[in-house]
Design a protein that fits this description.
Length: 434
């Protein structure tokens, strides 16, 4: 008999809740990963940095497991087919894994749980990628929070050592199933190719975290952690990072709470992850959806240097500074009146740290239709934002070198005109909803 540990968005051996519980059991643990063809087939290109990131992380895991006399078994298939093969090959006592709150993942896990149940195999799942999940932080009346500040207050009040304690899986590493190392399929074999880019380090930079509240809004400097992708794929532990945040910087901790918040929202309101506005009345807005303008936004040619700098940073590196994500998102939805879902999908395609809950939550925030969103009549002025956050134009000069030249396009729309048009369109949409 063996136990299976199924890696998903928790690609590390240390402080991994589900893996710890699996290793503590009586049967040896065979770790697996599935390159899910349902997901991979939806990706737009062959050069996908997220797939490459996962592949690199799996190679690292394989090395560690090899040293422990074990191996990772990697499938390239649908999860159901992978489990069909596993039950043919092994006598399985139980499958262990960590929670995933996305709508697709919930359906997938339900069907796998059912498949295993029919074969008398237990399916054990654990919280791992957030500090608090599901109903752990709810209002006194038992309903989920939809406003961040009171959620965050309760989050902090409930926090104690228990929730930050690490899971010392390493104590039980001798319980990995001993097996000669299996080959991980290459990127090419699963239909992808190398992109050549580098990944940010997984070691948090204490100096950046210490200064986070003072520097996080300045896109021209390295003032944020760049840990997003590691949190997304679990190559670092949220508990260890939260401990650090508590010691070093409260504002940084608050960002980690936003992350929990949006996962909680997606769990309770899965419609947001299925193309619907959190506030239904915003689905009555009549978007202009001008394709040519969307192309200019995507390519960073709107004639608004701060917007163009952000889009070019995204297109070149797979990263965009948070302040500029807010500016570019607001610009698309409000200045250009292009459906925020188009922008959300574009970010989803490009961001290395793409995460459905955070991407969707922040896009809805920027468009005004989300929970705790910026009110729709508050419209970012890209020029004022530049003055405030990039006064020496360091960021703009880095990404839009030609911004003062003749060749640089004139603004795609005049700010005051766009503002008035946005207010009018939103107002009409919301009135229609009544
Ligand atoms: P830091 O500023 O160092 O923050 C540390 C961590 O806190 C981040 O890595 C992230 O996990 C979390 N965090 C920070 N800000 C937020 C936030 N506003 N909401 C939720 N979590 C946050 N974040 C994603 O992880 N994935 C996305 O797909 C994503 N899409 C976004 C889309 C838009 C339109 C906007 C405005 C924001 C989006 N964010 C997203 C949030 C934020 O921009 C990124 O988390 C952050 O810029 C990543 O850089 P960093 O790792 O240096 O973050």
């Amino acid at each position: 008999m063996i136990n299976i540990f199924w890696f998903r968005r928790d690609l590390r051996l240390n402080d991994n809740a589900g893996l710890y519980h699996a290793l503590k059991g009586n049967s040896a643990v065979l770790p697996i990963f599935i390159f899910d063809t349902n997901i991979l087939e939806q990706l737009p290109g062959k050069a996908d940095r997220r797939v490459e990131f996962i592949h690199t992380a799996l190679t690292g895991l394989q090395q560690q497991l090899k040293e422990l006399g074990s191996t990772l078994v990697v499938y390239h298939d649908t999860p159901l087919n992978a489990f069909k093969q596993l039950v043919k090959q092994y006598r399985i006592e139980a499958v262990f894994t960590n929670h995933d709150y996305e709508p697709y993942a919930r359906d997938r896990d339900e069907s796998i749980a059912q498949f295993l149940k029919e074969r008398d195999i237990a399916f054990h799942t654990y919280k791992d990628q957030v500090i608090f999940e599901k109903n752990e932080i709810i209002k006194d009346d038992g309903k989920p929070y939809t406003i961040f500040t009171p959620y965050s207050k309760k989050w902090k009040a409930r926090l104690n050592e228990f929730y930050l304690k690490s899971y010392p899986a390493n104590k039980y590493f001798n319980n990995f199933h001993q097996l000669a190392a299996k080959r991980i399929p290459s990127l090419q074999e699963i239909g992808f190719e190398k992109t050549g880019g580098e990944f940010p380090t997984d070691s948090p930079d204490n100096a950046i975290i210490k200064q986070y509240d003072k520097q996080r809004d300045i896109p021209g400097i390295q003032g944020t952690s760049h840990l997003g992708v590691h949190l997304r794929f679990g190559t670092i532990s949220i508990r260890q990072l939260a401990q650090k945040a508590m010691k070093l910087n409260e504002t940084f901790l608050s960002e980690l709470i936003w992350r929990d918040f949006f996962q909680m929202i997606l769990w309770h309101f899965p419609h947001v992850g299925k193309g619907k506005a959190f506030k239904a009345e915003y689905d009555f807005i009549k978007w202009r959806n001008n394709e040519a303008e969307f192309t200019r936004w995507r390519e960073g040619n709107t004639g608004y240097p701060i917007v163009d700098a952000g889009m070019r940073e995204l297109n070149t590196t797979g990263f965009m500074h948070n302040r500029v994500r807010m500016i570019t998102a607001s610009f698309l939805a409000k200045h250009l009146l292009i459906d925020w879902r188009w922008g959300e999908a574009y970010f989803a395609e490009k961001l290395l740290d793409f995460d459905l809950a955070s991407n969707n939550g922040n896009w809805q925030w920027a468009a005004g239709c989300g929970c705790d969103a910026a009110p729709y009549f508050r419209i970012f002025n890209p020029y004022t934002q530049t003055k405030k956050f990039d006064p020496a134009l360091t960021y703009i000069k880095k990404w839009v070198r030609e911004f003062e030249e003749f060749t640089y396009p004139a603004p795609i729309v005049e700010h005051e005109t766009a503002r008035a048009r946005c207010l009018e369109t939103y107002k009409k949409g919301l009135e229609k909803a009544r």
